[in-house]
Amino acid sequence: MAFNNRGNAYRDLGDFARAFADYDQAIELNPHYATAFSNRGNTYADQGNQARAIADLDQAIQLDPQNVNAFFGRGNSYYAQGDYASAIADYDQAIELNPQAALVFNNRGSAYAKLGDHARSIADFDEAARLEPRFADAFFNRGNVYLYQGDYARAILDYDQAIQLDPQKADAYYNRGIAYRNQGDYTRAIADIDKAIKLSPQK
């Protein structure tokens, strides 16, 4: 357990080489240590190595079928690979194990949006926002679905809420600006896009 926990600390610091070394050691000492496989898998995912992430998370789930973080992490890796159906299946399992997980509802909502299932997407963002009323991304993501649907008034309300919760969220200003532009409110559109550029000039 000590190696696993130190690995978590190194991961938090962004020192992935040392994190991997500690997770490897934890697994060598206990090949049935599901949490170490899960943590190592999620660290591979942090680095964009989704294939290795999925392999480790498969092992974590095999060792501990109640491991919510492993299902959630594997769902995120499938999402990153563009396999949204597999991502949703894993998010379903994570939600069954923990129905209070706002982040899982949010991510499943994003997967449904990618598949064009906007009704289920909005329902998941609704639930994420209900479970965690200060979850800016849930409002932002729901706003994006409304924007895509052409419901600019609802999109703007959600972007308003996202910005209130996270005033540094450049994407929310930008997308709200697009919604205002599509409504013909060019003054507000320019003001929002100006703000987005100031917050994130590289985008």
From TrEMBL:
Keywords, alphabetical: Repeat, TPR repeat
GO BP: receptor-mediated virion attachment to host cell
TPR repeats: 2-33, 34-67, 68-101, 102-135, 136-169, 170-203
GO cellular component entries: cell outer membrane
Coiled coil: none
UniProt cross-references to PROSITE patterns, sorted A to Z: TPR (PS50005), TPR_REGION (PS50293)
Gene3D superfamilies: Tetratricopeptide repeat domain
Pfam assignment, any one: TPR_11
PANTHER family from the UniProt entry: TETRATRICOPEPTIDE REPEAT PROTEIN 6, UDP-N-ACETYLGLUCOSAMINE--PEPTIDE N-ACETYLGLUCOSAMINYLTRANSFERASE SPINDLY-RELATED
Record's protein name: Peptidase C14 caspase catalytic subunit p20
Organism: Hyphomonas adhaerens MHS-3
